[in-house]
Design goal:
352 residues, alpha+beta, 6-stranded antiparallel sheet, 6 strands, 59% helix, 18% strand
């Protein structure tokens, strides 16, 4: 039995690792393509760009890991069934539950790894991803003003600087025509780029200001702080449950400021705590369908298609229910349902 377990396990692990690398690589490349505008529009360095996209890899793995485990199980066991190896093993007296043990062990390991990803690694990397992305877009890191040249920071916002030394500026001219009714022109001897929670600001000293509305207004100032307002208002300030630490997310169930955020928190908790259990559900579901049908007298060529259909139904039901949670009671009912389904599948697999 140990020899058979090692034989099955080697094939399962090899196929799982290969599929995980291939699918993660493809998803990562798609992520790179979708974020190419950061390179084109914000002048981000290539190393910073790839460092940013790498932060998405743990989240990608957490999404695809149950599907990769399912594909590995269905590929290996269906191949063994096609080669009549399962038939010979079953004829030697081993029950379907014993034959499925390597798949269940792999699924258990994946469940633990998935929990670690969901509860700790993904929130940390997602928090770093959104913070880094925001800084690269709107922070000082991407701001490269050219000396003696006009730089367009946004539509209608143009800055001219005579000399640049780090973030210190000399002889600044700023034209703000984003509000067509009250365009503003500012001249200053010195300026300094400052990064704030709102985005970029320029602190200017010893200058003059002109506004053109119904009447032209002029004035002078010793110091003037202008918020450039080039940041995406939905970016850094938006509520993103992915980057919230799990402990904070659990506490926020009771004090979410709005109904929408409360539902988002419950859905994320279901994904983090119950999503990993789907590794076991899908692997056991695949094993019970393939192994039970393989023992039928007539060759069950429909078994793989039936397993894929069952997987699609199980995942669709789980994701739908996760997105429909309204209260903590609903979350507990969903958790109970997942474990009941898992118990039913394991019972069907191990019964004689």
């Amino acid at each position: 039995m140990k020899i058979l377990n090692r034989y099955f396990s080697r094939q399962l692990v090899a196929i799982f690792i290969m599929l995980l690398l291939v699918l993660t690589g493809l998803a990562w490349m798609l992520q790179i393509m979708s974020m190419m505008k950061l390179l084109l529009n914000y002048g981000i360095e290539l190393t910073s760009f790839f460092g940013l996209t790498i932060l998405m890899v743990p989240f990608i793995i957490s999404i695809i890991i149950p599907f990769v485990g399912f594909i590995a199980v269905i590929f290996v066991y269906n191949k063994l069934i096609s080669d009549n190896e399962i038939t010979v093993i079953a004829a030697s007296g081993l029950a379907p539950g014993q034959i499925a043990r390597p798949a269940l062990i792999l699924a258990t390991v994946l469940t633990v790894l998935h929990l670690v990803l969901n509860l700790w690694i993904v929130p940390i990397t997602q928090s770093n991803f959104y913070s880094t992305q925001w800084n690269l877009r709107y922070g000082l890191a991407h701001m490269k003003l050219q000396e003696s040249a006009f730089t367009q920071l946004a539509d209608g916002l143009v800055v001219y600087v005579d000399k640049v030394s780090g973030h210190d500026l000399s002889q600044v001219m700023l034209s703000d025509m984003r509000d067509e009714t009250t365009p503003i022109t500012i001249f200053a001897e010195k300026g300094k780029l400052v990064s704030t929670a709102r985005g970029l600001s320029i602190v200017m000293t010893n200058g003059s200001l002109q506004t053109h509305g119904n009447t032209m207004t002029t004035g002078t100032f010793d110091s003037f702080d202008m918020d450039l307002n080039v940041a995406d208002k939905e970016g850094e300030s938006s509520f993103r449950v992915r980057r919230i630490p799990t402990s904070t997310l659990v506490k926020s169930v009771l004090d979410s400021p709005s109904e929408k955020q409360h539902k988002m928190v419950l859905s994320e908790l279901a994904t983090r705590f119950l999503g990993p259990i789907m590794n076991l559900v899908l692997a056991a579901l695949c094993a019970v369908i393939l192994l039970r049908t393989s023992l039928l007298r007539r060759r069950a060529s429909f078994a793989p298609a039936m397993a894929v259909a069952a997987m699609a139904v199980a995942m669709a039901a789980f994701m739908s229910m996760s997105n429909m949670l309204d209260s903590l009671t609903d979350f507990l009912l969903l958790a109970l349902g997942v474990f009941v389904v898992l118990g039913g599948i394991l019972f069907a697999l191990f019964k004689k």
